[in-house]
Task: structure prediction
Amino acid sequence: MTNTDARTRSKAGLTSRALAVFGVTFSFAAILLSGGILFFAPKGKISKEMGWDALGLGRQDWSDLHIVLAALFIAFSLWHAAHHLHVFKTLFFGSKMSSRGHRAEALIAFAAVAGLTVLAFFSFRRAAGYLS
Result:
């Protein structure tokens, strides 16, 4: 007597979709860590004068690492978005099951990102002395 429902599981090969998902996840975690360290690190001259470091890296080293991780995160995010473009289109434009789509959510997310970007831009310009 054989069990026809029992299937042997074979090891799945590498997939670019899974690699994109894990790349986004792990690069986000790393950039979150480096950003957190930079947030709590002393600023500029103070950091240099005290010889501050965390895990053997100085503030400038952490800043450089953060930028490299951000570039990696962007690359993985674009790759992930390319794999899921059909999902994005369905969410935005709708489908047979949900003809309205989720345009309101897209507009809210866009407004939040654009608004905070503009506020940060003007805050940075004011801090640099460009705005009085």
